[in-house]
Amino acid sequence: MPRGFFITLEGLDGSGKTTQIKRLASWLINRGHEVVTTRQPGGTETGDKIRAVILDAKSGPLAAMAEMALMFADRAQAIDEVIRPGLAAGKIVVCDRFTDSTEAYQGGGREIGSEIVLELHRLICEGLQPDLTLLLLPSFGASLKRARRRNDRVEAQTGRNEGRFEQEQDEFYLRVWQKYRAIAERESERVVLIEGDLSIEEVHEQIVEAVSSRLMTRRGE
Fold first, then answer.
1. Does the pLDDT of residue 3 top 80, yes or no?
2. Distance between CA atoms of 201 and 208, rounded to whole angstroms?
3. Coil, strand or helix at 94
4. Could you tell me the fold of the domain covering 5-219?
5. How confident is the model at residue 164 (pLDDT cuts 50, 70, 90)?
6. H or E element at residue 61
7. Which residue, among 126, 37, 5, 141, has the nearest Cα to 76 in the 3D structure?
8. Bridge partners of 38?
9. What is the C-alpha separation between 41 and 57, in angstroms, rounded?
10. Contact in structure between 112 and 20 (CB atoms under 8 Å)
11. What gap in Å lies between CA 149 and CA 133, rounded to an integer?
12. Does the pLDDT at position 221 exceed 50?
């Protein structure tokens, strides 16, 4: 059976990834594809426990290296339990965040640097790379405002506060935003940058165009 196709969505919290993943999955299913959707951190029983530690605003302080190690522990479990089995079954796997997030948030935001993140990716993830990464990058100010507003809404609805990162200062998020742009420039063949304060429909149209193009190219290989 041919290997499946691995798509990741990246961006600051509040960039609209969750909405776009739902729309993309529906679009793919309507065209006859088998789709697996997952997220990081989370997406497995072990990953959800790790997510609670990393994102819960009530969690105690985490050393930057500990935070990064937890991210990769979650990722290793997701690869073993969800991503590789999905790809082996010929499915399209759509994942909310992958190693680019760790490079942006821990490498950039926490100022650990890219080198150690990429080396851990090579060792722990055995170099597994997405076939296509869709990087949603609205303006910095719009992303930050939407992220904080969304977290307040989720807490009101569920009682869970996953806003530990949203408590960071704007300077932290600016470093994350800038690192994402650097990743897009470095990985231009894999990463499709969708930037600007676009409507949900405009973003979806650009995503569909990028995914259609890559799947068509793959069929022609």
1. yes
2. 10
3. strand
4. Rossmann fold (3.40.50)
5. low
6. none
7. 126
8. 95
9. 15
10. no
11. 26
12. no
pLDDT (0 to 100) of residue 60: 73
To the nearest whole percent, how much of the chain has pLDDT over 70? 89
| Amino acid found at 53 | V
Residue 70 to residue 4: CA distance in whole angstroms: 27
pTM listed for this prediction: 0.91
Q: Specify whether the CB–CB gap between 10 and 17 falls below 8 A.
A: yes
- Helices (H) and strands (E) counted in the chain, each on its own, are 9, 5
Q: Is the per-residue pLDDT at 145 higher than 90?
A: no
Phi, psi values for residue 42, rounded to 5°:
115, -165
For the chain, the domains span: 5-219
3-state secondary structure at position 159: coil
Q: Which residues have C-beta within 8 Å of that of residue 122, sequence separation ≥ 6?
A: none
